[in-house]
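Milestone M4 deliverable, item 7.
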Amino acid sequence: MTLYKVYISVKSQQVYAYPEESQWEYEVTATRNEIKVFEKLFYQLKSVQSRNFLRAHEPQLVKPYHVDGENDQYDRRMKKVYAWIHEFTSDDSKQFIEQLPYFQRRKEIQL
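Output delivered:
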């Protein structure tokens, strides 16, 4: 299996092949299929953001953030992005991600 080094920008929701392409936050080493997961998650985030943007302009559809299912979808996907980055990034980046308030380490199953 060939591993590729890519550069992830959570802020702009992009995966870059070269570090000079744009600003990025995380360097990741993964297979092509694993990199495609990042792209799919970012596509899903953008889709949820678009729906939320359109809905925000309809006063009868506005809900508080904490009771809004669309916002929950966004939050779940963002957690998945950080969990996925955590799987394939450097130890320094892992330590930083582990300090984020919504990061939860996957529980290992004892056999």
